[in-house]
Amino acid sequence: MMNDNNTLQFKHFLFLWFGAAVSVAEILAGGLLVPLGFTAGIAAIILGHFIGTTLLVMGGIIGTRERIPAIESTRISFGAYGTTLFSVLNVLQLIGWTAIMIISAAKSANEITKMLWQFDYFALWCIIIGGLIFLWIALGREGGWKKVNMAAVLLLFGLTIMLSAMVFKDISILTKVPAGGMPFSEAVELSVVMPLSWLPLIADYTRFAQQAKNAAWGSWLGYFLGSCWMYTIGLAAAISTGKADPTDIMLAANLGFAALGIIVLSTVTTTFMDAYSAGVSFTNLRPGLNEKLVALVITVVGTLLALVADMEQYEVFLLAIGSVFAPLYAILLTDYFIRKKRSINPQLLANWGALAVWAIGVALYYWFLKLDLVFGATIPVMFATGLLYLVTGGYIDKWVYCKKTPKPCCG
What we know:
Blueprint: H1 10-21, H2 24-31, H3 38-66, H4 75-117, H5 122-139, H6 145-167, H7 184-196, H8 199-206, H9 212-241, H10 247-252, H11 257-285, H12 291-306, H13 314-338, E1 348-351, H14 352-371, H15 378-391, H16 393-396, E2 400-402
Antiparallel strand pairs: 1-2
Helix pairs in contact: 1-6, 1-9, 1-11, 2-9, 3-7, 3-8, 3-9, 4-5, 4-11, 4-12, 4-13, 5-11, 5-12, 6-11, 7-13, 11-12, 13-14, 13-15, 14-15
């Protein structure tokens, strides 16, 4: 049903998700693929992002059709208690993402100002970047956010072209012999999990779309193009310099303020989405709270965490996200698109069978990682989890816990 809040169009989603993809964290993730070399690395990036972004958009379609946030949509399959569990997990991962994004940006910004002006204050940069994210959220959709975000992403686009020109100035990176040591399947997986990490968020935005088709295409194109581009920059930079951090390249190119602009703007246009969606998920735990107010608190918490945390376990963090949310959305997408189960049952408190299949899926994820399959772990585990859920669906629908009411809960 359309209402006055459903104002976001194709261009808004295109810019929103392109802006979300342009970040230092994505460049660093692309740098992890350096053992494959450029050609195989690009193949893994494209394949992984095609898979991951398509799954991402399918989650967004549910949000547009049902006009519900991402985590609330899990009530369709798992019930109220299941959604509570996933809300907690999502809030935790989003606080982690907020901190990681602030850390990576603050480190890069600090390196730039230290080189240019001997200004060495990492903690201050954490606070500055956290404050800008706070301001971005406070601006809100009703405060002209759409126009400001589009202008910021256009500026980012120009700055990123400059960065790309610097990275690809040395064309020998295209033919350097790969160092080896990373299976192609792991590279695909590291490309899949980045868009997959947005699955618990996308419907928070697509629920405000005018049309499902425009939201889907805008989101797919914006994220696929932006994220593939960032991964490619990270891969090329790591091959050329041995580091995926673009800071050194930007400093060597004398980009100066442009370098700071890329770091700060890209972090703000990405991380405000993490903090905002953490606020949306938290309201599932405490209904009635203002999601924007909670998002502002989450930003403060993420900023404080950034002051004491580090990024040494970044790859482990990415894979942990895949293990939790790949089987979760395999079940939800199977229910919604195959079993045609598309409405929330207010009486359903917990679907124990669905939760059991999800737990099996988490275990399967890590097993598939060890097998080094060409498509990584996400696709096999989603297929296996979805198939198991589909085959056992008739039994699972009876293994539920419901409110005590005169009407039957399921069946």
